[in-house]
Amino acid sequence: MTGTASPTTTHITSHNPADPSDVLLRIPAPGAFAVADAVEAAREAQPEWQHSGAAARAAALAAVADAVDAAAAELAALAVREVGKPIAEARAEVARTSAIWRYYAQAPYEPVGAVHEPAAGPGLLLTRRRPHGVAGLVTPWNFPFAIPSWKAAPALAAGNAVVLKPAPEATACALRLAELVQQALPESVFTVLPGAATEGNALVSCADAVSFTGSTAVGRAVVRAATARGVPVQAEMGGLNAAIVLPDADLGRAAAHLAAAVAGYAGQKCTATSRVIAVGGALDPLREALAEALRAVPVGDPADEATVCGPLIDRQARDRVAAAAQGLTTVVAGGTPSDGPGWYAAPTLVEKAEPGHRLLRTEVFGPIAALLPADDLSHAVRIANAVPYGLVTSVHTADLSAALHSLDRLDTGMIRINAPTTGVDFHLPFGGTKDSSHGPREQGRAAMDFYTSTHTYTLTPSA
Description:
seven-stranded mixed β-sheet; alpha/beta; six-stranded mixed β-sheet; 20 strands; single chain
């Protein structure tokens, strides 16, 4: 299946969010036919990759890790320029990207099934996990190296081929990552197709398994389309994450964690804190400590070593943050935005938001959080659970009983005690509940289960 560009072909344009006049690239969108061609080529290349053996696949993934390490400085600088990630976070993401590939380089040696005795008579019963074929990956811009890697590495380790459709805003990062990956893999086993909705829809319509990270609205559409085709699908979507702070917590330490989770990378993480629930007597001292911590967050050029809160990804994102604070009479802290040309927003803490306010119902994806009072821990848990999302909650306390109470009653997929809501351990399952996630977990060994299907074999003697 082939297709040619028409005079009305759309283009993918990537801007530097710290300086929107700086255009990294502008390329024609490949279109749906090009996606179908890439999937067909990947499907043809996949069997040889699958049967190349554990050692070959392990060596290839380790070679990708080495290539990422060798290009680390370049990749970090590219993330700063294309998606506005502060340089310290960009370096950390690149280091994690390398670690992800190295972690999954060991996966091909893991067992792929089990041997069982039959219920009666001689023979063997076997289970065996096999790759689906072509994994279609649709990824966001905010972690332009790590998210594509934590999807692609386990898919490849299991013997799948991969076709990746990155967010348009992270096209240059994805193409550079592809160059590094493709050096270590056979042709067509890993392909990046830039694009937008057209290309994403095409990939979902023809891949053998689909992994998506992005907004809840788009994620639901991806799940419907893949489910209708009967192919495995996972979707990691939004978050409206809460931090619960009890009076016995180290409030200075908690405020530092919260400020970083609210304003780090301008709040552009699905794990960012957007609701701060202060229990009982913690409210007044926490308000003061958190406001001071947010005002102290360095805002500015993401290339500056000191910057914690860089620009929003684009004008629309910046405007959403401004709109989220409208109608609120109590702004506890507003910070000081940069005077630069980019899409900056001040780290903001608001109070006295009505229950139906958008800050308490939808993900804003910016450096803004609402401070909420709770009478006691049980009340705080009810507040934390009373949203459509269920990704991650942090609890700050010195009381082990309170921590255990929280672990058992919070309905989020991840619960972090005396730690920020942000932060991912790639060797453990990642995912949420309710509108935050659909399907099996990502990362860790759970990812290997998603990218394979289990088959049962019965072996009996011929006589």
